[in-house]
Design brief:
By secondary structure, this protein is mostly beta strands. It is built from two helices and eight strands, in the order αβββαβββββ. The chain has a single domain, classed as Thrombin, subunit H, CATH 2.40.10. The two termini are 38 Å apart.
Length: 170
C-alpha cells in the first residue's frame, strides 16, 4: 500500500532495492512446510512443501563466526580442561523485494535454498510500507534441502507444491 504522504520515500526505497538487486542479486528458493497427513491404517505419513523461487533477491556476503558447543556436564565438572566442539557457522542476509513475491508470508520454520546449501531462517523483518523482507539465514551444514532439485520446475507463479511420503521420496 502506498501512502500519499510518503510517496517520495517509497520511490527512494524502490530505487535502493533495485540497485541492490542489480549489484548483489541472485536466485534463491524459499521452502515452506505445508500440511502433514498420516494414514491410520498403514502409518504412512505424507507431507506437502511449497517452494517459491525468487529470481532476483539481494544476497549479501556471508558472515562467519565460530560457535562452540559444550555440554553442562563438562562445564560443571570444574576441570581445568574443558572439552567441546567448535565449528564455523555462516550467516547471510537475504533481502526479498515484496513485488517479487507478493503472496509470500514467512514463518521461522521456513528455510532458504541458495547454491545447493540450506539456510534456516534465524529471524526476519518486514521493511516499512511492505517494501521488502530482510531475512537472516544461518547455514545448516550436512542437511539436504529436503526436495530433489530436478522435481522443482518453474510455473507461471514460480510456486510449486511438493508432496512426499514417509520414505522421504518426493
Amino acid at each position: 500500500m502506498t501512502y500519499p504522504a510518503s510517496y517520495s520515500l517509497n520511490q527512494q526505497i524502490r530505487r535502493v532495492l533495485y540497485a541492490l538487486k542489480r549489484q548483489y542479486g541472485g536466485t534463491i528458493t524459499i521452502y515452506q512446510n505445508g500440511t502433514v497427513t498420516a494414514d491410520t491404517k498403514t502409518g504412512a505419513v505424507s507431507r506437502t512443501k511449497t517452494a517459491t523461487k525468487i529470481h532476483r533477491a539481494v544476497i549479501l556476503p556471508v558472515k562467519i563466526s565460530r560457535e562452540v558447543k559444550q555440554s553442562i556436564s563438562v562445564i560443571s565438572a570444574n576441570k581445568s580442561l574443558v572439552g567441546g566442539g567448535g565449528w564455523e557457522a555462516g550467516k547471510r542476509v537475504f533481502i526479498v523485494d515484496r513485488r517479487d513475491a507478493s503472496t509470500l508470508s514467512l514463518k521461522e520454520s521456513d528455510w532458504i535454498g541458495f547454491n545447493g546449501r540450506k539456510f534456516a531462517i534465524e529471524n526476519f523483518e518486514e521493511y516499512e510500507f511492505d517494501a521488502a523482507y530482510v531475512i537472516t539465514g544461518k547455514e545448516v551444514k550436512g542437511e539436504p534441502l529436503g526436495v530433489l532439485g530436478s522435481i522443482i520446475t518453474e510455473s507461471v507463479t514460480d510456486t510449486v507444491s511438493l508432496a512426499s511420503n514417509s520414505d522421504g521420496e518426493v
